[in-house]
Amino acid sequence: MIAFSQFLGIAVISLVSTFVLFRFLNSKSAGSGKFMGFTISYGGSLGGFIAIFYLLYTAYSSVALQYSNSNFDLSGDWKFTLKTSDGTVHHGTSKIKQQPGNIYFDIGGVVETTKVDFSAYVGVIAHRKAIFVYENSQQEMGIAFTNLYEQSPKKLVLTFTDIKDRDDDLTPHGLIEFEKLNQSKSWFEELLEFIKRYT
User: Fold this and answer.
1) Same domain, residue pair 85 and 175
2) Residue 98 and residue 76: Cα distance in Å, rounded?
3) pLDDT score of 172
4) Is 50 in the same domain as 90?
């Protein structure tokens, strides 16, 4: 489903295109369709408008739907290990909020060893990657991203890079290894764990 403003934009583009076609190019168009049980015939500029509007609306809707839905689910509570470029290791916790099927997510958390918290300006899932722009309580900003291999991952490894002028602790990049907390295990995973424990 597209928003009203997008619908209005398609209508305006269709109207302008129809005007150009019929005013300057002397086009002729005709069409017919069923509406509420009646067959309606239309021609001239009205037929051109309806044809252009239908084509634009159909094309835009299919593209918009393709990029507004996601099969990936990152929501939940996570613990993480942060490894900076100077070799320092920190631990912390994080929460990711994501509506089911949405490409956008919100992430925030705290590095428990330094008591520095962070949050994302925007987080998005695109082309099997999760990407977010972050800022921490020390006003450092940067970007973090990871590849997604599972629809509901239990572990993530993110690469982060601070923006050059916003890096106060001189650790401009590193890795963050996330592990999901409170994971409910499938019966098969529990069975494998049981077998490993008692063999």
Assistant:
1) yes
2) 8
3) 77
4) no
| Tokens, residue 150 | 């599972």
Domain holding 158, by residue range, is 76-180
Q: What is the three-state SS of the chain?
A: CCCHHHHHHHHHHHHHHHHHHHHHCCCCCEEEEEECCEEEEEEHHHHHHHHHHHHHHHHHHHHHHHHHECCCCCCEEEEEEEEECCCCEEEEEEEEECCCCECEEEEEEEECCCCEEEEEEEEEEECCEEEEEEEECCCCEEEEEEECCCCCCCEEEEEEEECHHHCCCCCCEEEEEEEECCCCCCHHHHHHHHHHHHC
Asked if 163 and 85 sit in the same domain, the reply is yes
Specify whether 61 is located in the same domain as 90. no
Of 68, 84, 102, the one marking the end of a domain is 68
Q: Which of 51, 68, 85 is the last residue of a domain?
A: 68
**Domains of the chain: total:** 2
- The answer to whether the beta carbons of residues 140 and 164 sit under 8 Å apart is no
Q: How far is CA 77 from the centre of its chain?
A: 19
What is the per-residue pLDDT for 168? 62
Q: Is 148 part of a structural domain of the chain? A: yes
The pLDDT value given to residue 3 = 66
Tens of pLDDT along 98-124?
Answer: 988 888 899 999 999 888 899 998 899
